[in-house]
UniProtKB/TrEMBL annotation:
It comes from Conger conger. CMP binds at N123. One of its GO terms (molecular function) is nucleoside diphosphate kinase activity. Catalyzes the phosphorylation of pyrimidine nucleoside monophosphates at the expense of ATP. Plays an important role in de novo pyrimidine nucleotide biosynthesis. Has preference for UMP and CMP as phosphate acceptors. Also displays broad nucleoside diphosphate kinase activity. This is UMP-CMP kinase. Monomer.
Length: 219
């Protein structure tokens, strides 16, 4: 009898521990799409209505570039201007730190939109080596639109963004990087049934209506 009670008790405790561990494990949605596809815009809207934290790899890299004393400032700056993908050791550390800080401040904040990552094979390998077992990758939210729409939106954004890469020359390189390095990553996840595609060529609210129904379905 005592053993039965102890057995039930320990199962209950281990279930609770298991649930707690599961609750603590970050849940991740990778957000991908061409430069200017609207990833950041849609992520901001998602955050308003759902309990997700938005982490943009590009924003984190730009912040690191501007951080006084950063040993990577110059390297990041030249990669961004060239539309190249920064070595994953740098990016994954920034992402991991941001996730840890978010979860330390508020344990309920364990759902993340990771925007603009993984952008190439190196990013993917870095994630798989360091984070795959630490986080649950739920799916990839893919904002799909033509290169021309991407370029037009970035040029328009460039009028006020102050970004060193929202110009024709950098954009040509960014589109090349997207086609050569990022599309194959999206295709890889597509084969695993992980990609949820949204037509991003329409206006912001139409795109968001699709995003909402998709997120509501995924739970
Ligand atoms: P990304 O993060 O994918 O590079 P942004 O969200 O920064 O893209 O959007 C790029 C530019 O296009 C911004 O100036 C933004 O206001 C604008 N934009 C975003 N989504 C749309 C849309 N659906 N239709 C028109 N313009 C958009
Ligand atoms: O996503 P965003 O447009 O902000 O990215 C801007 C630039 O930041 C990219 O063109 C690239 O140079 C760099 N970046 C990167 N690795 C990532 C995301 C962004 O090197 N995973
Ligand atoms: Mg962005």
């Amino acid at each position: 009898m005592l053993f039965r009670i102890l057995g039930t008790l320990s199962k209950k405790v281990s279930d609770a521990v298991y649930r707690a561990a599961l609750a603590m494990k970050p849940q991740v949605v990778f957000v991908l799409g061409g430069p200017g596809a609207g990833k950041g815009t849609q992520c901001s809207k998602i955050v308003e209505s759902y309990s997700y934290t938005h982490l943009s790899a590009g924003d984190l890299l730009r912040a690191e570039r501007g951080r006084e004393g950063s040993e990577f400032g110059q390297l990041i700056d030249s990669y961004i201007k060239e539309g190249k993908i920064v070595p994953v050791e740098i990016t994954i550390n920034l992402l991991r730190k941001a996730m840890e800080e978010t979860m330390k401040l508020d344990k309920e904040k364990f759902r993340f939109l990771i925007d603009g990552f993984p952008r190439n094979q190196d990013n993917l390998e870095g994630w798989n080596a360091l984070m795959r077992d630490e986080a649950d990758l739920r799916f990839i939210l893919f904002f799909d639109c033509s290169n021309q729409v991407c370029i037009d939106r970035c040029l328009e954004r460039g009028k006020s963004s102050g970004r060193v890469d929202d110009n024709r020359e950098s954009l040509q390189k960014r589109i090349q990087t997207y086609l050569q390095s990022t599309r194959p990553i999206i295709e890889l996840y597509q084969k695993k049934g992980k990609v949820r595609t949204v037509d991003a060529s329409r206006d912001v609210d139409e795109v968001f209506a699709d995003v909402k129904s998709l997120l509501d379905k995924e739970g």
